[in-house]
Amino acid sequence: MQAHGERWRAPYACDPAASRGRLIREETSPTRSEFQRDRDRIIHSTAFRRLKHKTQVFVYHEGDHYRTRLTHSIEVSQIARAIARSLGLDEDLAEALALSHDLGHTPFGHTGEDALDACMEGFGGFDHNAQALRIVTRLERRYATFDGLNLTWETLEGLVKHNGPLVDADGRPFGRYGERGVPGAITEYNERDDLWLATHAGGEAQAAAIADDIAYDAHDIDDGLRAELFALDDLRAVPFLAELLDDIARRYPGLERPRVIHELVRRVITRFVEDVIAESGRRLARLAPADADAIRRAGLQVVAFSPAMAAADEAIKGFLYPNMYRHQRVMRVRREAEAVVRDLFGKFVREPQLMPEEWRLDRAREEEPRVARRVADYIAGMTDGYALQEHRRLFDATPELR
C-alpha cells in the first residue's frame, strides 16, 4: 500500500518523499505528503482567501457569476490535476502550484499590477510573480517559528519558473525579464536557496502553467459573453471556435443561448486538455526522462500544446484582446482603477502613518525604496473592495468602477 493514499507516479514526476526540502527544517507529517502540506498551507493562507474579492479580468458588469481570482485558481487547479494525473505527475504539487500562481496579484486585475509597476519605477518595479514569492516566503505571518509558509523547494521553484527559465546558462535575464532584469525578490531569495533559474520547472509546474492558459481562454469567452462584450457569432472569427459552434448546432439544433455557451466552454476545455495530454505524451516518449530533473534540463517545455492547438490558443487570445481586454467599456473602468492605485500609492508613500499599525514605517528614518516597497506590499494585498474603501477614507471623490 502506498503512503498517504498516493496514486501512481511516473519516474519523471516530482516525488514528495524525495523533496529537496524546506528552507527551515520541519518534522514530516504522518498523514500527508510534503506537497499535500504545501497545498493545504496555501489554501489556509490569508492571501488565498483574499483572491475571492480580487478581479480576474476587469469587465464592466454587476453580478456574482463572473470569475474572480479565487474561482479562476480553482478552475486552474482542476485542469492541472487532470493533466498531471494523465501524465503520471504528482497531482498534489500541480494543484498547489495552480492554487498559488495568482497569490501575488493586485486588486483590479492586470490594471492594478500595471499601475503599481508604474508607481514602483525607480524602486525595482512590481511583478506579480515576484510578489507571490514574497508572500509565501516573507509576508504571510501565521507560524510561530518562521515568516511565510516555508514551502518545499519544488513548490517555490514551480511558483517562480512555471512560465519557463528566467536567465540563460550564463545567468543573463531573458524573455520577460530581458530588459529590466529578474525582480529583486526572486534574486534575493535565490541567493539563500538556489531555485535553478536557468532551467525549466518540473512537469507539475508546467502542467499548472498550461492549465492557466486553458482556463483563461475558456472562462474569458464565458465572461465576455455574459457581459455582452461580444456575441456568439463574433466568435466565428476564430476557426477553432467556429468548428465547435457548428458541432453544437448540428447536435442540438435550437438549443438556447446559455446552454450553447456552456457547451462551447466545455468543448474548449476538453479539446485543449486532450491535446496537451497527447502532445506531452509524445514529447515524454521522445525524451524518456529518468527523473524530474531530466524534465527541468530538457531545454524546452515538455507539457505543451501541439502546433495546431498552440495556434488556436493564440487565435483565441488574439480575439479576446481587442474585443474584451481593450473594449471601450473595460478601458474606461481600467483608467479609473489605475487612478485609485496611483492615488493610494502616492498618499501612503508621503504619509505611511496612514497605513494600519502593522504596516507603518517611520518615513524620517527609512530610505525611500524601503518605504515604497512596504506601500506596494500593502496595496498589492488589498481586495478590490478594500482598495476602494481606503480611497474613500483618504480622498474626497472615489470612482464607482461601474
TrEMBL record:
Biological-process GO terms, alphabetical: dGTP catabolic process
Positions of the HD domain: 69-217
InterPro entries listed in its UniProt record: dGTPase, dGTPase-like, dNTPase_2, HD/PDEase_dom, HD_domain, PHydrolase_assoc_dom
Keyword terms, alphabetized: Hydrolase
Keyword Amino-acid biosynthesis: no
Single Gene Ontology MF annotation: dGTPase activity
The UniProt record lists the keyword Zinc-finger: no
Family of the protein in this entry: Belongs to the dGTPase family. Type 2 subfamily.
Protein name: Deoxyguanosinetriphosphate triphosphohydrolase-like protein
Organism: Chelatococcus daeguensis
